[in-house]
Amino acid sequence: MQLPYYIDLLGTLVFATSGALAASDKNMYRDIFGVTFTGFVTAVGGGTLRDMILGTRPAWVADGNYLIAITIGVLFAIFFKYYILKYRRTFFLFDTLGIALYTVVGVQKSLEYGVSPLAAIIMGMFSAVMGGVIRDTLINEIPLIFKKEIYATACLSGAAVFVLLKLLEIDDNINSFISVFIIILIRTIAVKYKLTLPKIGSR
Amino acid sequence: MQLPYYIDLLGTLVFATSGALAASDKNMYRDIFGVTFTGFVTAVGGGTLRDMILGTRPAWVADGNYLIAITIGVLFAIFFKYYILKYRRTFFLFDTLGIALYTVVGVQKSLEYGVSPLAAIIMGMFSAVMGGVIRDTLINEIPLIFKKEIYATACLSGAAVFVLLKLLEIDDNINSFISVFIIILIRTIAVKYKLTLPKIGSR
Amino acid sequence: MQLPYYIDLLGTLVFATSGALAASDKNMYRDIFGVTFTGFVTAVGGGTLRDMILGTRPAWVADGNYLIAITIGVLFAIFFKYYILKYRRTFFLFDTLGIALYTVVGVQKSLEYGVSPLAAIIMGMFSAVMGGVIRDTLINEIPLIFKKEIYATACLSGAAVFVLLKLLEIDDNINSFISVFIIILIRTIAVKYKLTLPKIGSR
């Protein structure tokens, strides 16, 4: 099927943009290599980790289109930085769509490779958020997923729904649509109403 | 054999508890996701890295019991935090038992997969300590293994003993028992007498 | 062929030295384990990541000689620290030779494993610089590749030249020689004339 492939490429592009922006935003020396490298790692990090655990080769290694998508995403961040920051809301939609799509692609691929349902939920979330985690670790910051309102948790919820509907033998396309929708919904509501998860260990 | 399997699950639980405690201890925002995620990474990080290098799939991916053990370990950390910190000595025993078991399981698995004896010693140590290293990197701290009195070194010593006795064709069960005992012994003595390794590069 | 093997071992030794020096240089507690561990990670990190992505087992796992090379490299750093820092220029040459060789070995291996030309360029650079990136992340610093004048970029350029000449069916040995030379040339010129890449996102 062609559609998911192009959606995957679009997700890669969006993540590359968000990664490059994060690097160029840090108030320190960032040259064109640092920005590109950070965009690249953000875009492919999560999927690469998932594929290394699954024991299969990441898509970007064999298919040059992913690298082209990343290049476009990084150039986009460099040339339209102020425009993107101005239309922050549009960018938020893109990022949210990105994590939703990555999660569902990730959980689906994991199930195909015979991963247990519980582990597949985690692998789906990993696909979506670990690129950002690696990016934040490289630029020496506490990973955003530990600070953001309900972010990875939205991915986990959507992944859980996908696994559940899969067990109920719902058609994969319908299932993908519902799961993606749920992730976007939870994430949007969390941001709109500033919902957070219960805190632990506060003093 | 069933016994090592349950011991492995127990080790996973203990490491999840210690990881979750480390996160909830950091004087900053930590929600229930951050604590769980950190517990998970601490518990499976070392073994996952070992298995990715060996080219085999980590146990938690196929066997849901590991994820259940981690969930219990994290809940334990959340609900019994003050109890655990009070009975610190008991927890220390658990953690020491955990690294000892993980080391021996790791070196044994590596040898089975045809790793050279010298590399197997390192892989055994990796299994035991890299989960903690990844955890500390994520919460933006210098990894504990660089600061703790003789910790990874105890694992290396025990792993070396295991490889040596294996070459001498000692029975695996007896060998495991001796190697685990040596790691616990070295670690306990190091903590009790505050032994440290020679420092380098002091000014 | 025997020559590349010994060159690879020499590269490993040099990187172990530079990693151990970086650890012992940090103005904080560094014992003999921390220094050795950091040297080890610097030396094998990049190649291990490359091999995990390619789905093959890293050389150091099967061949004990790599670990011996690392041990020698670390001991060298410990005993000849002041000597090395005095003859900094010699060490710079070694490090530059190291990244050049690692890059070409990495891109060559990636192409052999059926990686796309574009991705092989990245994999070559990864082989050379990711060990240092992991090292810097562990000792909680911004990775040097983000701060150093044209470092990873020199590797990317040399890797691109290798791929190009390979497509033009130039003999591998001649190609390796030219590509290594180009990396050394770019890096040396960049340091000598303090060339940097254009900055992005400055305020």
Automatic annotation (TrEMBL), chains A, B, C:
Pfam families: Gly_transporter
InterPro entries xrefs: Gly_transporter
Transmembrane regions: 66-84, 117-138, 150-168, 174-193
Membrane topology according to the record: Multi-pass membrane protein
Gene Ontology CC annotation, any one: plasma membrane
Subcellular location(s) per record: Cell membrane
RNA-binding in keyword set: no
Entry keywords, A to Z: Cell membrane, Membrane, Transmembrane, Transmembrane helix
Keyword 4Fe-4S: no
Major subcellular location class: membrane
Span of domain Glycine transporter: 6-81, 93-165
PANTHER family: INNER MEMBRANE PROTEIN, UPF0126 INNER MEMBRANE PROTEIN YADS-RELATED
Family listed: Belongs to the UPF0126 family.
Protein name as catalogued: Uncharacterized membrane protein YeiH
Organism: Daejeonella rubra
